[in-house]
Design goal:
Blueprint: H1 3-7, H2 20-36, E1 43-49, H3 55-70, E2 83-87, H4 90-102, E3 111-112, H5 114-124, E4 128-134, H6 154-160, E5 162-169, H7 186-190, E6 195-200, H8 210-219, E7 234-237, H9 241-255, E8 258-262, E9 276-279, E10 282-285, E11 306-307, H10 309-312, E12 317-324, E13 328-331, E14 336-339, H11 360-375, E15 378-386, H12 389-397
Parallel strand pairs: 1-5, 1-6, 2-3, 2-4, 4-5, 7-15, 8-11, 8-12, 12-15
Antiparallel strand pairs: 9-10, 13-14
């Protein structure tokens, strides 16, 4: 693995670098695949874990091992199996394809978006042997004409066309209602199939101590606690967006992989000119549509842009400057963080669904999920600025 790829994005590690928990997961996963490859019903292996717990890293390592066995000239139970890794995230797909270009046992065609793979397998009436799904919480749970998906549930369709499915799922990273699973819906779904669950709970991305993670977790549940202090993690709250950006530029010059990212609270229309994020004295353009093969975080010019959940989810930064936009506010009476879905500009996230009941609490959860994703990007530091004056003053008072 090159230094560029191992240091950037999600941490792609070789076997020696996997933690004991990750090695245990990889061993159990490979055993499960061999056991269920030729059984009558599709086997499901589900990996749970919060942002930054190394889910993508171990998934990538296990998939490389699977493909090495599949393409080996030495007879083994996995030889000549037809396998894919699926991710419904353009920027992460680019990273996986870059990895394929430098890893002998991998091919770029091994990595797919879900809809094209589903449609191709259905059209040719084929079965994949093993399908890995990274960020399964991004799969669609309703039809989507824009994405040319005409069925009801992408996970169900992938199961229908696979002998074994391995999926990474984190309910706290669901960012759209059209990907939403009711809290109690996943368990009975899994009960239809032979399945195994594995939970990763060790934080690998954010190097701050437990108090840093606890602070973020409390914030994304609306609770404010004392600002944590960790000599090895730079956590700062800013009174203006410009000094936050200046700090990110300094960090990028010395440590690289430092970017400003924001909640989806500022207007943006695809391919309709340049749209800006404003944060006090700071005004920077939103990330542009990226038509290159390089992920957003690896392109030097994006230091002068603001990244979104759609360009940064699943990736490591060294330092993250997070702008909390107008949808994130503060209730002084309850001393709680509150959110305003009517001020959230990503209306694609809130396309109505008539099967989910009351949507107001689900919309609020989507916003808190997006904050969780953003705040857990930085490995060595987190810088915050809140557009809402009341929230900004309360954070500064911490």
């Amino acid at each position: 693995m090159t230094t560029e790829l191992s240091a950037a994005t999600f941490k792609l590690a070789d076997q020696a670098a996997l933690s004991p928990a990750q090695q245990k997961l990889e061993t159990q996963l490979m055993t499960f695949i061999k056991t269920h490859l030729n059984t009558p019903k599709t086997g499901l292996f589900v990996i749970h874990g919060d942002a930054g717990t190394g889910k993508s890293a171990v998934l990538a390592a296990a998939f490389a091992k699977l493909q090495a066995a599949s393409r080996s000239t030495t007879a083994n139970p996995l030889q000549q199996t037809n396998n894919y890794l699926v991710v419904n995230h353009n920027e992460m797909l680019k990273i996986y394809k870059r990895v394929a270009g430098i890893t002998p046992e991998l091919r770029k065609k091994d990595f797919q978006k879900p809809t094209p793979l589903i449609n191709r397998l259905a059209k040719t009436d084929q079965m994949a042997d093993v399908v890995f799904i990274d960020e399964a919480h991004l799969l669609l749970t309703q039809p989507d004409r824009y994405n040319r998906f005409d069925h009801q549930n992408q996970l169900q369709e992938l199961i229908n066309h696979s002998r074994v499915v391995v999926l990474v799922f984190d309910a706290r990273q669901v960012l759209k209602l059209k990907s939403y699973w009711q809290t109690d819906a996943l368990a009975p779904f899994l009960q239809q199939y032979p399945h195994q669950l594995f939970n990763l709970d060790e934080q690998f991305r954010v190097t701050g101590n437990a108090s840093v993670i606890d602070w973020i977790n409390h914030f994304t549940q609306g609770q404010l606690t004392a600002k944590p202090h960790d000599a090895h993690f730079d956590f700062q709250i800013f009174a203006d967006g410009q000094p936050l950006y200046d700090r990110i530029r300094q960090r990028d010059a010395t440590a690289q992989l430092s970017r400003v990212i924001a909640t989806a609270d500022f207007p943006y229309v695809v391919n309709r000119g340049t749209w800006y994020v404003t944060a006090g004295g700071l005004k920077l353009p939103w990330d542009k549509v990226n038509l290159t093969d390089d992920p957003w975080a690896l392109r030097p010019e994006t230091l002068n842009e603001v990244g979104s959940i759609y360009t940064i989810q699943g990736f490591d930064l060294n330092y993250a400057g997070v702008i909390l936009g107008p949808s994130v506010g503060y209730d002084a009476k309850t001393d709680r963080v509150i959110v305003h879905p009517d001020r959230y500009e990503d209306q694609e996230a809130f396309k109505n669904r008539d099967d989910l009941g009351q949507l107001a609490p689900l919309k609020a959860q989507v916003i808190f999920n997006s904050i969780n994703v953003l705040m857990k990007r930085g490995r060595y530091g987190l810088y915050l600025y809140a557009v809402d004056p009341a929230l900004r003053q309360r954070l500064l008072a911490l």
